Model the fold of this input.
Amino acid sequence: MKKGQKHQYGEKNFSLWLVWAAAMHVVVFSLAFYFQIWDADRHSKPKIVTVTLVSLPGSGASRDDSNYGTAAEAISEPPREASPSPLPVSTKSVKVSVPVPEKALVVPKKLSVEPLKPKAIEKQPDINQALLQLKKNVDKKTAQLPRPSSNTLNNALARLQQNVKLRAGVKGSGEGGSSTGRNGAGKGSGGGGTADSYKAQIASIIQQNWSFSNKLLKKSYGMEVYVRINISSDGTIHQILFDKKAPSEYLNLSVKKALEKSSPLPVLPKEGGSGDVWVGFLFTPEGIE
Amino acid sequence: MLDLRLGIFAMLSDAGVVVLLVLSLLLLFSIISWAIIAFKFGYLRKSLRESKAFLDYFFEVNNVDKVFTESENFRYGSLPRVFRSAYIEYRALGDKGDLRHARTRIARAVKREVNAENKRLAALVPFLATVGNTAPFIGLFGTVWGIMNSFHTIGLTQSASLAAVAPGISEALIATAAGLAAAIPAVIAYNSFTQKISVIERDMEEFAPEFVAAFINEP
Done:
């Protein structure tokens, strides 16, 4: 009887320790969980970099006075002969012909000679820092130069407008669309033309070459790939730029493979000019947009 | 957004059924091990401390009745328990004149109590040894299974890039880490407890004849 009581007491005592151990495990896991959240918060705060973007005064783009002034200051160098050199601290955003997501822009660019093979370039994480650095350099140079008179500014503005008109003329009727900028940007609208049909054509080619199975994705949340491709006049894909990657590496790789497989694409329509064009696509598990 | 931030827990949410089962088993092992560790740690510490205090008192006082009264204060000590069983046997002896018979009966009672005490001290401790030996292998099993599935998925996606291979492997390796986390404290505690238990057992073996002699020589 006494032994039985002792045994029962020992069991009860051990049960208490068992509950204690379970509680300790819960506490340890909770602490680890909250520590991870806290640690992730601590490391994932992005640096805020203010970058002023300049939109070129084109058709459909509205003018923002404050930013416009910044642009005028930035191009206060003595005028040179019709060389469309890139503006400092400015991202080119010229009309897009087909309703694609905002990031998918058709940007005219100089013909690059070197790579014939498609090359995937990933976005640098510190691009904002680079832009800030660039802006600082430009500010320094501007400070060293004599202050431009209002005449010089007007001349520069007139020259810019001329350049833009020239480019618009080259693009032809198919280059309607919208131009967007993050700050001081305007939106315009235009009808599609041959570029629309060309985009639809290359989208269907890429879709055919895209081998992807939805079943292999564990999650469906956030599965979007924004990608831009640089197409030369002969249809070769020069560059593949991922504006936004999906969490699934499988989806990203399948997109890259599909684009590489699709090169060369059909020759660019002659109405589109002789230079390279940038075309953007949005890949989702449902298809290409 | 949330799942990207949770690291190991996010990986666990993606783990397969077998890996989750292995992890659950290891968690159970770990909980039981820690309960045994806490329980035995307190029990053995008290037993050692009370045995030492009782021995001091035993050699200080020559009267077995007094020693017995004092031994009631040492509830967890192994030596006081052995002494109490010997005393009860001694008091139960009808004819104290037959010394040989009395010695045999007391010695038998002491032996019985020593055995019972050994069993009590060693109870639950072998489970720690089991966890220490098997938990790493169970974890390894989970890892092997996870890597097997991971390679299968890699084969389906037809991509062998590090970005495609690494998440599956790191997910699988959690099982090995969990196995080691369960095994290491269990092995440490097992070694410590067996050492303490052997000290108590040696004390009981050494002092059992002393107790018997104390009763026989009682005036």
The interface with chain A takes residues 3-9, 14, 27, 30-36, 38-39, 124, 153, 156-157, 159, 161, 163-164 of chain B (CB under 8 Å).
